[in-house]
Predict the structure.
Amino acid sequence: MERDWQAWHREYDQPGSRLDRRLGAVQGCIREALDRMPPGPIRAISACAGEGRDLLGVLADHPRAKDVTGRLVELDPTLVARAAANAPPGVGVVCGDASTTSAYAGAVPADLVLMCGIFGNVALPDIRNTLHALPTLCAPGATVVWTRHRRPPDRTDDIRRWLAATGFEEAAFIGSDDLFGVGAHRLTSPPRPFEQGQRLFTFVGFDTLR
Ligand SMILES: C[S@@+](CC[C@H](N)C(=O)[O-])C[C@H]1O[C@@H](n2cnc3c(N)ncnc32)[C@H](O)[C@@H]1O
């Protein structure tokens, strides 16, 4: 049965819930990345963005917000509408499929790439495939912020290892004792050229993977 992603988002509204705390960790990583970025324009993309609470929440009060443009990509039209209602000018919210590189044409190379709520919903080879493709979406020195649950088998170590092998240095990893992992990784190798039409992952959903 397909998961109700609108219902999934309601956990964010419970203070202290797992998702609320995960959001705090993700937003901390985004803030830190923005704090470190040199003066000038900043481009951000978010795959499977949901309501976009992570990036949009930070942009609500971050001093660099006026420099940020970007694209959030989400399939569910209701979630898209909610994100769009909170998005500042310059940050577009697209209702569409985030699973191929074509979704990001015109919005990359990005300085900030959000891959949150994806890696627990795609098969292991697709995690690896997506990580391998990240340098084609990134500007030099870009930061990727990602999440993955830590229920057995915990794949967060694999993800960290694969990111290192793909040319990223770890800026932060928050592995909570109640089973979520949040990472921020900075690209230290040169980006690779963007190519449209490359499949990143198939979003099968956590329930199907179990
Ligand atoms: C686990 S939620 C994560 C939402 C958000 N990134 C967050 O962390 O709060 C996964 C989201 O991916 C969306 N989604 C699933 N398949 C997608 C696809 N192929 N393209 C774009 N969005 C997709 C779902 O509608 C859902 O909102």
Notes: The chain is about 30% helix and 25% strand.
